[in-house]
Specification:
The complex is a heterotrimer of chains A (394), B (292) and C (236). Chain B contains 11 helices and 2 strands. Chain B is mainly α. Chain C has 2 domains: 156 residues, P-loop containing nucleotide triphosphate hydrolases (Rossmann fold), CATH 3.40.50.300; 73 residues, no CATH class. In chain C, helix 3 packs parallel to helix 7.
Amino acid sequence: MTVNNLVRAIRRVAVGSLLAAGVAVASLQGAIAAELKLGVDLSLTGGTDDFGRGARMGIEMAVKEYNAKGGYKGKPVELAIYDDETKPAKGVENLTRLITRDRVFAVIGPANSGVALAMIDIAQKQKMPLVVPLPTSEPIIGRYANEAKHYIFRVTLNDGIQTQFMIDYIKRKGLKRIGLMHDSTGWGQSGRETAVRLLKEAGIPLVAEPQVFDQNDTDMTAQLSKLRDANVEFIVSYSLAPAGVQIAKSMQKIGMKTPWSGTWGVLAPNFLKLGGKEAAEGVMGVTSYTIDHSDKAKAFHERVEAAYKDQGGDFFPVTTAQAYDAARLVLKALDKVGPDPVKVRDAIEAIDDFHEAVTKMHPRPFTKENHEALGADTGFLAVWRDGKVFRVTD
Amino acid sequence: MFANIWQAVISGLSIGSIYALIAQGYYVTYITTSTLNFGQGEFLMIGAMIGLTAYVVLGVPFPLALLIAVVATGLMGIALERIAIRPVLRHVLTHSWVLSTLAISIILKNGAVSLWGPEQIRFPSPFGEEVLKIGNAGIFPQELFIIVCALGTVAAVQLFLKKSILGKAMMAVAHNRNAAAVMGIDVKRMVILAFMLSSALAGLGGILIAPVTFAWAYMGTVPGIKAFAAAIFGGLENPVGILIGGLLIGLLEQLFGVINSNLKEGITFLFILIMLAFRPTGLMGRRTVEKV
Amino acid sequence: MLQIRGLKVAYGHIQALHGIDLDAKAGEITAIIGSNGAGKTSTLMAISGLAPITGGEIKFEGQTISAIPAHAITRLGITHILEGRQLFADQSVEDNLILGGYSRIGKDKAAVMAAVEREMDRFPILRQRRKQQAGTLSGGEQQMLAMSRGLMSEPKFLLMDEPSMGLAPLIVQEIARTIRMLKDSGRAILLVEQMAAVALGLADRAYVLESGKVTITGTGAELARDPEVKRAYLGG
């Protein structure tokens, strides 16, 4: 071969490669994945790290079991896991990397509502199915609900529905005198509005003014005394774990034993860490999963405890369970249509035979109109007993 | 109703005595240097975090942990004076110390976040969580300890300033630097002592309230502001006024909470604004009238 | 005892002293007179370490003291009784005296407490008012307290800045008597006065300061007779 021919050949290869790369880049608008990779973005450090770490265990377990059964057409699914440090900007960065560099077929995550709200725009635009296993803020699903193809799915109890389960419990127990407490954040205010509305619809009015507190308040005796004066039988509360602990301690201080329920935040391990076993004892919250709520749940709990003994075992059961179910839904879709994000999205939406959920999910968790897998009658009240969370059975 | 008020009083006294303690720190540096440490809240936080590390992480007995926290923040106060106050006071007509102490507070806050994270951490009370009763108001042993310790310290500091030679020398520097200097008093050393004392008071406050409020990087900001309000309320130069100011803010918060929980946070500051509009020098005004 | 050569004092851009020479001897009263702003107080403050020296030298008993901080200068035996008394108004008469002895109290507390009693013997009114706040005393009483406070440090050299200011003539005489007594006990006194007649009457040696410079110097009697001085400072 002459030098000229060699040079021409090299040039042709170079141009060809550049063209191929260009085509690949251009085709990213549809994010065609060639890899058998499942993307994961979670808060593994920072404020909601307990949630992230718990969820990760569930996802890893689901993938391990799937690969043990043969994976996809004999090939194992890989996990690409990134930490968003509970920072929205980092979550966005990770998602972009998962889409363009790792070329995953779906993404599970994040752990935090603020991060999620930043990520959904990209997932929707880049046509990457994003299954959200933990964040509860309603706009996460609401924002793109009317799109022809909605790419965001959720496997957790959203803010609005958690209140519904508290009302269900109140109705079931025939409680008439209800009190309400909430923090002064936007989330607390919207929780109050939801609660007031639902109670009115149920024909159960509040017997006292809703009591407000600052989320860093350390003494709730004033608010609680007012509720006690009104002889409330049950208190609905919207707070994160720290304020929840202060509520419990203030109730101890004034010798108040009124049952109360918070949202799922008071069932987080952080609540136990901050308050200790005595303060937590008897505190109720809303959840989709406890280790004892079904036989499947009991079995799953044992598996998690065994597999992750050196990481503290099943330290945050509901996050692990929800993420586990979320991952298995995605893998089920993968089984049907292969690693194509657009096709996976359609398949997830169409699943109607998911009988193996460990949460209370229905066999058909999603429809075109509904992307919330955990809706009515998939949640219930749970209670702290001796440092663990159990279903409220009475 | 009365029972609720009494509970509010007991609850309010506890946090109020912390405000009084921190406010006394503002007072000490203000009278000696006409400056305020706007990072006082962060020194409270550092006291709590160091105490946490000593008591919870290293298992040091609580009295020793308390001593370590107080000494450590005292030493940091010396560093503060050297870094953020002295170099800046050469520019006599500016208030650059506001900026420099604020800068220190931001640095401390960020440092704490990287060392201990942004979340609340439990600080178990060495006295346990059995609720005690005063009349029919409940109080945790830690809260009672806070009242006794904080108010006792306030009294001790006043005694020190009024009765001991060193204290009198510090008051002399506060009153008139030149006159103090020609008495043979080393003004520089007195200023350092003032900052050490002021910061140590904040550190003590931190380790006292941490079992009640949780220990975390952002715990100092609001108490720092409220203590400052207490100091202004009392007229900045009147130690009795400052003590009353601190206790009053703690009480008012709780009492307003009994009336209407929506009012709890903002009402105290509204009240102070109104009061300052009528008496700009604070409730207790000046400490002495000087004869011309 | 005290030797000043070419002393310059400046506050920022404002030059208060442009290079003055001055000597003060033990057992003598040296007076500085001049109008307001002439630099009299600056001279005293330069000696006691309270004013920024920008040139020249001050020697006390042979030792250069121009670079020593104020609190150390007191311990060398120089005490400055400040213009306008500048007592610690919010502290008691007794506490003011005790603070006057601060430089010695670490070494010998008993001696300081004895000195407190001694000063209250010198001015019995102080004993009467010992627990009162210094700010509540009359002008004359405050001057007595200021002098006593100054004497608590057992000084060899006293700097007195306008001790007669704002006082009734009878009290001024009282003060003058005390100053003479102090000189007789062997101390050196450098006296700054607005009331030139009083100063010149007391002085063994006197200096006239104008706009930061020494213009005339001589014995007290000489200056009292000098027509220039008479016209400018003695009312013709």
